[in-house]
Amino acid sequence: MKVTVFGIGYVGLVQAAVLAEVGHQVMCVDVDQKKVDNLKKGIIPIYEPGLTPLVEQHYANGNLQFTTDAQDAVAHGEVQFIAVGTPPDEDGSADLKYVLAVAETIARFMSEPKVIITKSTVPVGTADKVTAKVQQTQASLNKTVEFDVVSNPEFLKEGAAVNDCMRPDRIIVGTYNNNPIDLMRELYEPFNRNHDKMVFMDVRSAELTKYAANCMLATKISFMNEMANLAEILGADIENVRKGIGSDPRIGYHFIYPGCGYGGSCFPKDVQALIRTAEGEHYQPKILQAVEEVNNRQKFKLPGLVKQHFGAELAGKTFALWGLSFKPNTDDMREASSRTLITELIAAGATVKAYDPEAMEETQRIFGVSDELVLVGTKEAALKNADALIICTEWQQFRAPDFDLIKQQLKNAVIFDGRNMFDPARLSKKGFVYYAIGRGESV
Ligand code: NAD
């Protein structure tokens, strides 16, 4: 099938590569000329495990094309994916300007029937707006070409995006009527062989399904962070509590890890956007508001512990920081807890020496080059003469470090662990002061 994908970001590029892998002919279009030029040279704009070989192979065999020419791109596909960003507006609601700009472009250039699929995460009612935009644009050009609008939200996880798209848990398809159903089945048939993962519904339910999923996940995290803070106050260990509740199959072990707050391009903005949607309908979404508040507070947890240990004035202190991306296996720094930490430490006068396996370039792009934030090439190089080690992201390579070396390199044997990676008793035996989340301080 011929497929067009608008937006070559985490979602658009991965989806396009995976569709090309099963044999669809995919044309990707973006307004970012540099991104398109780079992709043609084999330079992939994001880090995502397994993505580079797929893109290279299918660009070489012609199944995957990259362009900035929207007219060509609209002509190419019988289905047109909209996978552009939906960043938060000033008030936190989802900004639809990129989505609607693509809808207008498709309407402008289409000369035969198209199925327009919104992949971007968009508020309930967006399919109606896309439909209206296409109709208005066509009317202004005196043309009437048939089209269907489908809501097909994406559930991939950054860091496991290729696998998630190759083996989706479910494929949500929201339609206004039965017209596009056969085509959607054909498009996703290669991913639907083991059992039927396609769930058809109306467009509004499909749009809300995406927000409900992300908000539920964010709720689990904020709930656990609330419990962790309580555990600390009450003298309990959240890791015991986590295992204790996870053993109940109604709760389960997944996604109940406490930490220094969730980040990324989705949870913070989607929780906020659903709050704004609810408020727009004069409904107070009390759980969602609490989820957001707890998370905003949790991002200050690590800087708070550092100041509790070293005092509020950190001038002359240097901290080794391991992990900058908002989670492992990605270079994405959007809303990462490390950003709050770095900003707070520098504001208190400290210097930060940071290392991340993938997010160094992105960190430099965000913070620039300065004397206060030094980026180093290995996790060991961050340690030398630092006053303490702080961990923000649970990369595999941080899980079993050489503690003797850490102790030898640091000025003080102090670790602040925002992801509860180590056993407090073991670290205490090794002579560390160890701060984790919801486990108290172990000396
Ligand atoms: P991104 O910012 O990485 O990529 C968006 C791309 O769209 C950019 O390359 C941008 O240049 C391009 N673009 C903007 N306007 C355009 C236009 N008019 N024509 C063509 N291209 C245009 O975004 P992303 O992380 O891929 O997210 C895209 C959408 O998918 C968002 O709504 C997001 O909420 C949703 N989503 C993201 C994830 C994730 O993990 N990143 C997961 C599920 C859903």
TrEMBL record:
<dbReference type="InterPro" id="IPR036291">
    <property type="entry name" value="NAD(P)-bd_dom_sf"/>
</dbReference>
<dbReference type="InterPro" id="IPR001732">
    <property type="entry name" value="UDP-Glc/GDP-Man_DH_N"/>
</dbReference>
<protein>
    <recommendedName>
        <fullName>UDP-glucose 6-dehydrogenase</fullName>
        <ecNumber>1.1.1.22</ecNumber>
    </recommendedName>
</protein>
<dbReference type="Pfam" id="PF03721">
    <property type="entry name" value="UDPG_MGDP_dh_N"/>
</dbReference>
<comment type="similarity">
    <text>Belongs to the UDP-glucose/GDP-mannose dehydrogenase family.</text>
</comment>
<keyword id="KW-0560">Oxidoreductase</keyword>
<dbReference type="InterPro" id="IPR017476">
    <property type="entry name" value="UDP-Glc/GDP-Man"/>
</dbReference>
<comment type="pathway">
    <text>Nucleotide-sugar biosynthesis; UDP-alpha-D-glucuronate biosynthesis; UDP-alpha-D-glucuronate from UDP-alpha-D-glucose: step 1/1.</text>
</comment>
<dbReference type="InterPro" id="IPR014027">
    <property type="entry name" value="UDP-Glc/GDP-Man_DH_C"/>
</dbReference>
<dbReference type="InterPro" id="IPR008927">
    <property type="entry name" value="6-PGluconate_DH-like_C_sf"/>
</dbReference>
<feature type="domain" description="UDP-glucose/GDP-mannose dehydrogenase C-terminal">
    <location>
        <begin position="320"/>
        <end position="424"/>
    </location>
</feature>
<dbReference type="Pfam" id="PF03720">
    <property type="entry name" value="UDPG_MGDP_dh_C"/>
</dbReference>
<dbReference type="InterPro" id="IPR036220">
    <property type="entry name" value="UDP-Glc/GDP-Man_DH_C_sf"/>
</dbReference>
<dbReference type="Pfam" id="PF00984">
    <property type="entry name" value="UDPG_MGDP_dh"/>
</dbReference>
<dbReference type="InterPro" id="IPR028357">
    <property type="entry name" value="UDPglc_DH_bac"/>
</dbReference>
<keyword id="KW-0520">NAD</keyword>
<dbReference type="InterPro" id="IPR014026">
    <property type="entry name" value="UDP-Glc/GDP-Man_DH_dimer"/>
</dbReference>
